[in-house]
Specification:
Elements (H helix, E strand, L loop, with lengths): L4 H7 L2 H13 L2 E2 H5 L6 H13 L3 E6 L2 E6 L1 H35 L1
Length: 108
């Protein structure tokens, strides 16, 4: 399993995750529109969008004086797949730890 650190760094921030939720729900949006729905300034939203764009999670296109951003479905699916893999790996680790703990408990 290869984990994309830039991708996970981008989605590691709660504001950026909320932005992705809003963009998915609305089918896209602008920094101004997102700022109206978030507890941060438009400038902060623009910086967060730049991080998401560098990670390939969103793409912006010119829309008049602003840019309209949309979520990249392929990159988002890649993130979900990586999360599933990481979750499954931790489930296996925790199952092994549980088995070891049960073995120790039976011996005592």
């Amino acid at each position: 399993m290869t984990v994309d650190d830039a991708l996970w760094s981008a989605v590691g921030d709660p504001i950026r995750r909320r932005m992705l939720d809003l963009l998915l729900a609305d089918g896209g949006g602008t920094a101004t529109g997102l700022a109206a729905q978030l507890p941060v300034t438009r400038q902060a939203v623009a910086k967060h969008l730049a991080v998401l764009d560098r990670a390939g999670l969103v793409h912006g296109t010119a829309a008049g004086r602003e840019r309209r951003y949309r979520v990249d479905d392929v990159q988002l699916a890649r993130a979900v797949a990586q999360l599933s893999e990481v979750g499954a790996a931790w489930d296996r680790r925790l199952a092994r730890i549980k088995a070891i703990a049960e073995t120790i408990a039976r011996r005592q």
